[in-house]
Amino acid sequence: MPEVKNRQAVTGAQAIANAMRQINPDVVAAYPITPQTPVVEYFAQYVADGAVDTEMIPVESEHSAMSAVVGAAAAGARAMTATAANGLALMHEIVYIAASSRLPIVMPVANRALSGPINIHCDHSDAMAERDSGWIQLWAENAQEAYDLTLIAVRLGEHEDVRLPVMVNFDGFIISHGVEVVDFLDDEVVKKFVGEPKVKYPLLDVNNPVTYGPLDLYDYYFEHKRQQIEAMKHVKRVFKEIAEEFEKISGRKYDILDKYKVDDAEYIMIALGSTAGTVKYTVDLLREQGHKVGLVKPWIFRPFPKKELQELLNGRKAVIVLDRSASFGAEAPVYEAVKSALYEVSDRPKLGSYVYGLGGRDIKVDHIKQAFEEAFSGNINTDEERYLGLRE
Amino acid sequence: MALNIMQLATMFADKNPGITQGHRLCPGCAAPNVAKFALMTAESLGYTPVVGLATGCLEVSTTIFPYTAWNVPYIHNAFENVAATISGVETAYRALAKRGRIVDPDKKYAFFAFGGDGGTYDIGLQSLSGAVERGHKFIYIVYDNEGYMNTGNQRSGATPPGSQTTTQPVGKKLPGKIQLKKNIVEIMAGHENVYVATVSTSEPMDFFKKIEKALQFDGPAFIAAFSPCVRFWRVNDDKAVDISKLAIETGYWPLYEVERGVYRITKKVKELKPVKEFIEAQGRFRNLLKRPDADEIIGELQEYITRRWERLHILEEATKDKPIR
User: Which fold has domain A6-250?
Assistant: First the structure.
């Protein structure tokens, strides 16, 4: 394992801003929104101090942030932005356009509850509202992963077989404002890892003029959508390749799924983001009591790790899915996807759906224990959505 | 390099500067000439245009995949964000120039954004204001046809009172739109560090000179182009220029510019014709003219136009050689 030279106690926002400093993108356009604000603030200071020579556009809204990075990326720039919650919702229209224009924009999202009612704290309703937008979604458990995945995202989006924008999700406040120890790579190592921007059909190649964003009617639109669908199919393979390369420079291993004590696990919990850390702790506690439990945390949610989950979950006693967002009138998004994937396996586990933590409601070890214990006692129902930490 | 009228005439007649032939805009539409006048001026002065478009007539009719009528770099993003989009392109240009990644660095790049009045006065105003406030070097051109014509003549903030639209029609009870047109020129001039001008394709030299000035201006420029929609203004398809002339002669569309707060009327009309002549020349006001309160509504418009015309002269006098920034 390479020697750690840059170990620091930082917030997740600092970690991401530092990744952005090391990436030194051509263009960053961003608008502040709690809890993403410190990312923009730290980065703006890097610009002001000359620590990067990025051109920063202090736009008047998130809608313009996404619009400007679409323009910049189409022009041939490596472009980044960052947002959260209502900011992401305001971008929504252009989020789709970025993906369909096949622009490899990287956007950290400090996950926060969508209004209304207005709330500034963590849940996943913002990113889940964009899950069909055509963006790759990476999910970080802590500041270290937020840093690492931001670097990986640059390579992933720009890959010839992918050419898609990438959202790096990190839980608002819990990761963005929580202070943790992070091992940073050397600037030169990052520079070499991300490399020069891989640009295709740049607008600014005035000698080969191209038309971006034409009107695409019933005679071509469908085929273009198919191309997006196909591009997504390459993401997992390319992610694995890049993750291997990243492991060589960092000693840190990434995969489609983060599997914690699953080898002999009869009961597996699935969670995205920072809650996975609490689940890991609880898994340890329950194992001390003799329970065969484990955790799966998808590092990638889009494309959905269907095959990987099928292989892993087939034949287990029970699978408990935690969702930090609700789907009104339908099953919660992670649960729905997992349940759908398990339709095809030969030995289906029992399934339980637990929604937790909306609007930043704390999720505790006892809550996680409760969900596991309900499964141990056979109190698990595929067709019932349950809630953790909710007053009835 | 100065404007060469013979060269411009040749370009107009023989070439396809920026926007080419074969697009699907209605015959007689003024919008393609607005784009053509601007881009040929830029090219004749040695600039290489890069173009952004807001969703609208000019956009949908010129880029029906797999065809494009643009032989210059072109980007369309959405309806309300052409200014933010071109600000990203312009910023990328500066970033890549700094890092030595511009393909042809010896060329002079000029960044244009085109939007209709819907994409400019209404839904795109925030994006436009932001980009101008930030001082991006770009030229925004609104082709103002006074309504959402692409979707079939709906009311916009640029629609004049009494004009027939489908979302505020002249009815048995209501007279249609009663509000005056939003004064987009003054709104944009209020950004102060900006060159703002009105133009019309019926006054080509004035148009070319203002584009030249906008290109040479050290900062953002906003050009409001009067752009008759022959289809929904209910005039014959050879009438765009005549109607434009009438708009200028009646003071409905005064030709002037505001450069960092300094006003200059570029077309002095000795005696304004009554605006009623402009109204009566167009079928879109036919229903208004049938109403008993027609004279009252037209009278209010006339009064506004007269006052605005006087006010422009006062501002010209008062701001002479006194830029605000």
Answer: Rossmann fold (3.40.50)
